Automatic annotation (TrEMBL):
Belongs to the binding-protein-dependent transport system permease family. HisMQ subfamily. It comes from Tistrella mobilis (strain KA081020-065). This is Amino acid ABC transporter permease protein. The chain crosses the membrane at residues 30-49, 103-123, 190-209, 230-250, 270-289, 371-392. InterPro entries: AA_ABC_transptr_permease_3TM, ArtM/GltK/GlnP/TcyL/YhdX-like, MetI-like, MetI-like_sf.
Length: 401
């Protein structure tokens, strides 16, 4: 009698291969485990959301975002866009977002400029310059940024005099504990025309530089671009301004009562926040720039010197372009840190998104919604900065041949 039974995984008497269970397939198991993990996460999230909504309903706490259409009823100290207390909570929160963007963008630009200068200075052959740059970096990096914000805010509000005794370093510029006042061009269409012309000039210069690079790659000779670029950047806006009437009137700040009226105003809160974030972040960027420059081989310096290039030209055209591939990724992180650190503005009274949302929360009692909006605002801004810097990083990446 023939025994037809066989152990699992062994071949049949006729030689056919054994049937394998789907669970023995690594790919199937990977997908199955991911489905199980996702189901667990969804179940936990469902429980937490349901439990939160139940607790809110039990305590008669209103949920949802309907409150955004109600009148805010509170004033905001400064805003780039029109706002008054009769506007909605949505408008107030948008003012906070715009104020956060203003501080972040200005801080990023100046932190990058200062960081590059300090980073290059740390590598200077001038002993005094290098030591001063080192002191700047080591001092500011090791003091918490919140303390630096308090320092700058206290310096402006406590050391500077009252408006009636304001310092006047330049005609029309006043420095007081109420902030900084400067002249501004009087409202006239010519100024807007000049601004549009400047934007057009910047685009034209970019095209000019790109054309010069293409000619250099094809022929080895680079056309001169400095004078044409300056002519576009200066001549075009001035020409448009002149054609549209060449207005020279300025809106000068004047002392009226206990403060100045007119001109451009920079509040103590904005000045302290911008100074603190900019100088603090610039110290970290300086170290990134220094390490990026040092990552470029010494042979590049030697080759440039052999060609008779000056150190400044070598740094600008040879060293920095190669160092950027090392500098850009960590600098992106510093830009994000500056943006997120702007949430400390609430400590010195600057009306950013966190400050405005906190006021909204105190009036409406809807903490979850307001915190969610704060998180969404910072997430959107941070992802936008990351996307732009990743695009720029890919654009400047060295292409292997």
């Amino acid at each position: 009698m023939t025994d037809t039974s066989r152990r699992p995984g062994t071949s049949a008497p006729d030689g056919t291969p054994p049937r394998r269970s789907m669970l023995n397939d690594a790919g199937v198991r990977a997908v199955l485990f991911q489905i199980i993990a996702m189901a667990i996460v969804i179940a936990i999230g469902w429980y937490l959301v349901g439990n939160t909504l139940h607790n809110l309903a039990t305590r008669n706490i209103q949920t949802g975002f309907d409150y955004l259409s109600r009148e805010a009823g509170f004033a905001i100290g400064e805003s780039l866009i029109p706002y008054n207390a009769t506007d909605t909570y949505a408008r107030a929160l948008w003012v906070g977002v715009v104020n956060t963007l203003k501080v972040s963008l200005i801080g990023i630009v100046f932190a990058m400029l200062i960081g590059v200068v300090i980073g290059v200075a740390r590598l200077s052959s001038n002993w005094l310059l290098a030591k001063l740059a080192t002191i700047y970096v080591e001092t500011l990096r090791n003091i918490p940024v919140l303390l630096q914000l308090f320092f700058w805010y206290g310096l402006i509000t406590e050391v500077l005099p009252a408006p009636r005794q304001a310092l006047q370093p330049i005609e029309g510029v006043f420095l007081s504990n109420r902030g900084f006042k400067m002249p501004a061009p009087a409202d006239h269409p010519a100024w807007w025309g000049a601004l549009i012309a400047l934007i057009v000039a910047i685009l034209a210069v970019r095209f000019l530089l790109a054309r010069a690079r293409r000619i250099q790659a094809a022929t080895g000779d680079r056309p001169k671009t400095l004078i044409p670029s300056l002519a576009l950047l200066i001549g075009l806006p001035v020409a448009v301004w002149a054609v549209m009437g060449a207005p020279l009137a300025l809106d000068m700040p004047e002392l009226r009562g206990f403060n100045f009226q007119g001109g451009v105003s920079v509040s103590p809160e904005f000045a302290a926040l911008t100074l603190g974030l900019t100088l603090y972040t610039a110290a970290f960027i300086a170290e990134t720039v220094r390490s990026g420059i040092q990552a470029v081989g010494k042979g590049q310096w030697e080759a440039a010197a052999a060609l008779g290039l000056k150190p400044g030209v070598t740094m600008r055209l040879i060293i920095l372009p190669q160092a950027l591939r090392v500098i850009v990724p960590p600098t992106t992180s510093q830009f994000l840190n500056l943006t997120k650190n702007s949430s400390l503005a609430v400590a010195i009274g600057y009306p950013d998104i966190v400050s405005v949302a906190n006021t909204t929360l105190n009036q409406t009692g809807q903490a979850i919604e307001n915190i969610a909006l704060i998180m969404l605002a910072y997430l959107t801004v941070s992802l936008s900065i990351s996307a732009f810097m990743n695009w720029y990083n890919k654009r400047i990446a060295l292409v292997e041949r």
